[in-house]
Structure formats: C-alpha cells, structure tokens
Amino acid sequence: MRKPDFFIVGAGKAGTTSLYRYARQHPYIFLPKCKEPRFFVDDDFFSGVPPALSRHVRSLDEYLALFAPAPEHVVAGDASPNYLSSPTAAARIHEFRPDALIVAILRDPADRAYSHYCNHRRAGIEALSFEAAIAAETQRPPRFHYVEEGLYASHLLRYLDLFGEDSVAVFFTEDLRHDPAALCRRL
C-alpha cells in the first residue's frame, strides 16, 4: 500500500492549514481530505480533550487507506501539526517511513502559544485564564502545554537526529504570509 512521502509536522497555529491547502492544489502533490490524521501521536498526548480534537485515525489500515487514492507519479503527504511537539511521533514516523521528508513551519513562540490558547477557549476545552494556564502547564496534559509546544529546538532535534538535515525543511509563518507562492515553490 501507498505510504506518505512527506510529513508536515507543525507547529500548530503556525500556518500548517494554509500550507496544506496550497500544497493540495499542486498537481504532483497528494494530501488526503483528512488534514490531521494524527496517527503517529500517542493517546496520552490528547488526554483531557474531546475525541473530535484528538486522534482521527487509529488503525494502520485506516491510515494507509487515506493514501490509496494517490497516483503513483505524485508525492503524498500527511499534515498533522501535533507531530512536532509529540515526544513519540518522530520515532514512530521514522520506524514507518525512514526515508520521509519532514516539513516544519514555525511561528513566533509567544504568538503561537496565545493563538493555541485562544483556539482551546473557542473550542470550550480551556477554562483557565492565559496566565493561569501557563503557570499550571507542567501539571496539565500535553495538549495544554502552550509554552512547551513552542520550544522548537528540542522538538526539531528529534527529527534532525532521526532523519538528518537534508530531510528536514523548516519554514516560517512570516514567509508564508509574505510570499506564499515562493514558500510553496521551495516546498
């Protein structure tokens, strides 16, 4: 069965949805309709959030079925921003597809943290103030680690160590906003 060739691993709230939508328009790129299968994130990462905001695909067969419609002459990808900050996703992806290309898009960590928090407030799963949520972060489930998710160096090192520098591309939200076409050409 067909496996994805590349993974857009995050960061969340940094432009992954825009990048996914732009890439889906390219005739030689296949991304499934399910933007965030989150297959390689362990269940503990999503403790404390409703099922609609947790893992979308649970079985390998279900995951591979997402890529079955991809023609052979195109590259296929998975866009799941939780892969970047998940402590286990990099190793799981590497075990599954060691020759994969990894794409990360990063945003100013403070802006990203507040956007992540606001997203949880809109979804009705965050009751604390932003300040209280930050203060309590280390006692909360990983999905509520607004600051820790923005510590990009430690997250990227997992991918760099496993896949190597030539297989990891890092982009920035500002580049996507300034010239999305140029960023997509680089991708």
Task: Outline the structure in words.
- There is one protein chain.
- The protein has 187 residues and is of the alpha/beta class.
- The protein has 9 helices and 5 strands, in the order βαβαβααβαααβαα.
- A 5-stranded parallel beta sheet has the order 2-3-1-4-5, sandwiched between helices.
- The radius of gyration is 16 Å and the shape is globular.
- The model has no long low-confidence stretch (mean pLDDT 93).
Summed up:
The chain is an alpha/beta fold and 187 residues long. Helices cover 39% and strands 12% of the residues. Strands 2-3-1-4-5 form a 5-stranded parallel β-sheet, with helices on both faces.
**Percent of residues in helical segments?**
25-40%
Binned strand content = 5-15%
Rg of Cα set? 16 Å
Mind summarizing the main beta sheet? 5 strands, parallel
Major sheet strand order: 2-3-1-4-5
Assembly category: single chain
Number of strands: 5
Distance between the termini: 25 Å
Based on CA inertia axes, which overall geometry fits? globular
Listing every helix as H and every strand as E from the N terminus to the C terminus, the arrangement reads EHEHEHHEHHHEHH
Secondary structural class = alpha/beta
Contiguous low-pLDDT stretches (5 residues minimum) are none
Total number of helical segments?
A: 9
Mean pLDDT: 93
